[in-house]
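Meet the record:
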Amino acid sequence: MTATLLAGCLALATGCGSAAPPAERASTSAAQKPPAVSNPVVSSPVTTGPATKDPQPVKPTGNAINVHKIRWTKAKAVSKGKKVQLTWWSGVEPCTVLDRVKVKETGKKVTITLYEGTSPKARNMSCIMIAVEKTTTVKLKSSLGKRKIVDGAK
């Protein structure tokens, strides 16, 4: 086995060399000049800064398939603490949709869990993989006050 492997490597190494002697190779490479370029390529700078577009507002569909929990990246109280606006990174619709939002309130914390899945409309459809920032707002039973907001997907 080792002898076969060694013989194969040796054949590969000797087969990759040039057939011309070293003196002839040196003279041929020095004699050839690269072609002159008549139309130089001009390129504009690529900017890869953060997107300035606002998150896309979405509402739960309630009919997604392959549903799973998804982490949100930001939560802020709105409407005098009676609602919470959540922001997260997702995929494009209909390939990735918000199925539902579960809210569990206690005296010390509010646990919010986002569930995403695929819309039934996406069957037999090719889905591109582009990140989209999305947002949704949920109502609370009682004002947030000093309670902590917790991600239920963690």
The CA atoms of residues 35 and 41 lie 15 Å apart. Helices lie at 2-15, 22-31. Strands lie at 56-57, 65-70, 74-78, 83-90, 97-105, 109-118, 132-139, 148-151. The longest helix spans residues 2-15.
